[in-house]
Amino acid sequence: MSMTDIRYPHPPIVEAVVEFKFSASTDEKKYAKVLTNLKKAYDVHKEETHYTYAVDMKAPYKEPKKTTQTVDKLFSNNMTQNIIMRSNSLAISQLAPYACWDEFRARIFRDFEVWHRAVGYQQLERIGMRYINRIDLPLEDDKIQLEQYAVLNINVQPCLKSLDKYSINIQSQLKDIGATVIVNSAMVESPLANHLSLVLDFDIFRMVDSSMKVEDIFTYLDQARTKKNELFESSITEKAREIFRRER
Amino acid sequence: MSDKSITLYSANLSTREFEKNVLSRAFDTTGLAVRAGSGVEKLAFSSQTAQIMEEIIALRPQTSSAENALADLIVQRKPSLEEALFDACAAVKIEMSRVSMHFSKEMIDQLTSRIDQFHDPEDWEESEKAIQIQSLKTFIRWFYQAKPPKLPSFGMSNSGFLTASWMLNGNKDQLVLVFLPRDKIKWFVTLDDSGQKEYASGETPLKRMDSVLAPYPVDQWFAKGQ
Q1: Residue B13 in contact with residue B76, Cβ under 8 Å?
Q2: A residues 165-224 near B, CB within 8 Å?
Q3: Interface pTM (ipTM) of the complex?
Q4: Which residues in chain B (37-96) have CB-CB distances under 8 A to chain A?
Q5: Residues A140-158: tens digit of each pLDDT
Q6: Looking at chain A, which terminus has fewer C-beta neighbours within 10 angstroms, N or C?
Q7: CA–CA dist A172, A180 (Å, integer)
Q8: Tens of pLDDT, residues A65-82
Q9: The model scores a pTM over 0.90
């Protein structure tokens, strides 16, 4: 079994999101049909209106340019499965507990197909996949030796040895899958006592400039997910892995 | 200077209400533009919204960091009782989701189901407060540390603090914990020794709970099958 196929009983994933952004807005009738059909699969619906006002600072008393957009949010009863819909995008999210890729992928496919059947072919502009992981590290003598847990690490001068928090942001190209990855790593306060949390946030996105069939979209998502796993596994040490490999 | 955008989110206002009553206040406050508006209703802004408004005001002395720190203003009418209670329950579920990798599904389901019951709008009393997330956070930190094998009976005080209780000896021996914000816990012990009652209570920081409860039969309260 390769490192990318490992399944943990309690993975440290706090949120996984896949977002499809289209190059044009969907017409109102088709959007309404998508919303009606997706509501059948979720328990709660909330609608928001987003107003954007652009003010020209050189002429502040001029009427600001206004755009409005409706955002529909759908949730499961336990709030762990949700969708955020706009006329030009569909974001499907899974909060912890994260079961496995197969299950998440099946829901993404189901919901994307609802959109696709109602709207028909639509040119994609961007496909995004984001996984946010949080590993809760126990304090030892009130501190964390970060290098024991994280390969993606920082070197600080000895006078800053006691590290409370840090953050790193890296952007790189994943040429083999035609995507870009933004990696955010940070040490933050933990929800558990006597712990600090290591956050590893992988945001993989691909700008789309040609048409993609549905099967190609999902082949790409499988590749992006494999790449995300490679990045995650190579960012942590075995000692970190032991923490979430343990049974409760 | 470049164009500035402010994105304002409205959860449950019509466009007309929003522009008439909210937008004029927002721009008036920032001094960027003044729009005519009369009969502006006073709307309920949360403390978070007030903070965001201050950030918008800070746009006036322009620096690159302030330009980049444009905040979103979330404005909504004061929620109905049903909306407020729903939001409270949703916040609990999201908070438990964050730590679900550390706890059993059984515990999470039991807790969230009880919270839903406590927040039933049909049974809600005006004097009651919705669950306080800070209380839940104290519970999460205690439960992870103590790991009681037997799940408690969950309750909620009128002030919105989560409670957990265990019973023994035909419910005559009781341990009740009330989870306060900032890692403080109120505890109440009742013991019955052949009709002779003993009571003890206190308010203790989380880190001292083990030593404070050590004189009492905690292992028995927490043991499954009891």
Answers
A1: yes
A2: 191-194
A3: 0.90
A4: 62, 86, 90, 93-94
A5: 888 888 889 999 877 777 7
A6: N
A7: 6
A8: 888 889 999 999 999 999
A9: no
